[in-house]
Amino acid sequence: MAKTGVFESDPMVMTKATELKKELQRLVRNIVDDEDYRTETIDQARETLFALKELKMKRRSLSLKLRETVLCPEEFKCPLSKELMRDPVVLSTGQTYDRPFIQKWLKAGNRTCPLTQQVLSHTILTPNLLIREMISQWCESQGLELPDLAQHVNEEGITEADRDHFLSLLEKLSLTLPEQKDAARELRLLTKKMPSFRALFGESLEAIPQLLRPLSELKSRSSIYPDLQEDIITTLLNLSIHDSNKKLVAETPMVIPLLMEALMSGTIETRTNAAAALFTLSALDSNKTLIGKSGALKPLIDLLEEGHPLAMKDVASAIFNLCIIP
């Protein structure tokens, strides 16, 4: 017999959600298939989508309230949220937290352990598989449902498999040259196709320095490998597209100097993408000032004067953006 518990969905709510989804499908199909669709159809689709979102939020809120009625063992609660942990991870100090809450703590600029106040040696979060299994067993004994980590996806669409693969690629960037090239190429492709991989770089202050390591450790411009440089600079461009990354990318110490270096060396695609990255980052006024003070205008103007058709638009856009701030 299947167990039931506080996490079981309300049949009436599920029925309502199904009806809303069917109505949304019908409206969207009308918009896609009929070239002469009415603007009212768009409004109806928007209202249906909002109703579906509201229903989802109510279900989530109800689940949280029901969860709090269960006498959860203290060791299974996140020290920050005081709730049952869904994705327990270990901080460098050895303390365990629920991933979304410790990530929020770190993204706020904190670099200490919330419990011990120790300064963190790094901000890599390691899954606590033992606690995860103990929580899973306890939930089963209570008739509660805990999502399978392999299927669990957060708001950015990131799975645990994505995160593990991402970390393995960053590690390869500190290994041999062939491994660095393979990892850089794959990160370039993943950050182009999958917004979730752009978001992953925002989870740790070490991620971007790890990406840049193959370039930042070079002794001279003559030792740069053009294909490796192109892939890393293009990955930076892809990251800068993600709004929540713009500040983090620009304020990472090595980013702007390496973008300026790329403006003066490498393939024309590398130089163009470096200019495009500066243009994208300069969408924030604080970044405009940071980029302007770094002296980036001169290499941008030099590249503009060379007149490469591929680079002209991105370079001119970057220069224009930087000139908005006196």
UniProtKB/TrEMBL annotation:
MF annotations from Gene Ontology: ubiquitin protein ligase activity
Matching Gene3D superfamilies: Leucine-rich Repeat Variant, Zinc/RING finger domain, C3HC4 (zinc finger)
Pathway recorded for this protein: Protein modification; protein ubiquitination
Entry-linked Pfam families: U-box
Enzyme Commission numbers on file: 2.3.2.27
Superkingdom assignment: Eukaryota
Coiled coil residues, start to end: none
GO annotation (BP), single: protein ubiquitination
InterPro entries the record matches: ARM-like, ARM-type_fold, Armadillo, RING-Ubox_PUB, Ubox_domain, Znf_RING/FYVE/PHD
Alphabetical UniProt keywords: Repeat, Transferase, Ubl conjugation pathway
Domain U-box, chain residue ranges per copy: 71-145
Catalytic activity: S-ubiquitinyl-[E2 ubiquitin-conjugating enzyme]-L-cysteine + [acceptor protein]-L-lysine = [E2 ubiquitin-conjugating enzyme]-L-cysteine + N(6)-ubiquitinyl-[acceptor protein]-L-lysine
CDD domains reported for this sequence: RING-Ubox_PUB
PANTHER family on file: U BOX DOMAIN-CONTAINING, U-BOX DOMAIN-CONTAINING PROTEIN 9
Protein name (Swiss-Prot/TrEMBL): RING-type E3 ubiquitin transferase
Species whose genome carries this gene: Salix purpurea
